[in-house]
């Protein structure tokens, strides 16, 4: 079965409410008539309710930039899955390199987030990737295996659409450096083979693996031509309506 490409925009800690409303409206317009790909946007938590109103009834899927594993409780600063569902938010980015590198989130904590999201009907976008030092010392594949196996430990995937993975080499995020198509495909193929070991082949074959790392309008076409790259997790370029529209309409 052919995997449907997913273009995901991660707005990170950007946009006022007015900017979020305008940008979401532009994305909705850019997606009109599209049937062969999916588009997701992840605004900051403060803009989720505003953006939810804009994308309601459209083809654009709403995502959060993180999610807690608990339904409620004394978890200051966290957002429960049910709170997201109330806003018709059905996806969440988990384990982004900035959460790992800046905020110290471990594979174990990320695994709890993935499990909690799935338990409450939120589709995780599980991120993983190596630092420059790890790549230069030949540890790339070992790091990817540790993060993927750790993030998915004990996770049962019955419906492939209910889990998305995203390879994002840390050295390529926000730096303007992008993994070559060959480097990206090598990593994606390695992870695909890991999934074949972890899940039924029919499930692993259909699970989507996105590439994230300075994706822009100039490199998206070449990246998405690779057989195991099923979409893009876009940062800075998703904040500009014209550049994100070009990425959405990759060829």
UniProtKB/TrEMBL annotation:
Binding site for substrate: 10-12, 174, 214, 235-236
Pathway annotation from the record: Carbohydrate biosynthesis; gluconeogenesis; Carbohydrate degradation; glycolysis; D-glyceraldehyde 3-phosphate from glycerone phosphate: step 1/1
Isomerase is among the record's keywords: yes
Catalytic-site annotation from UniProt: 96 (electrophile), 168 (proton acceptor)
Record carries keyword Cytoplasm: yes
Keywords: Cytoplasm, Gluconeogenesis, Glycolysis, Isomerase
Protein name, as recorded: Triosephosphate isomerase
Protein's organism: Thiovibrio frasassiensis
Gene behind the chain: tpiA
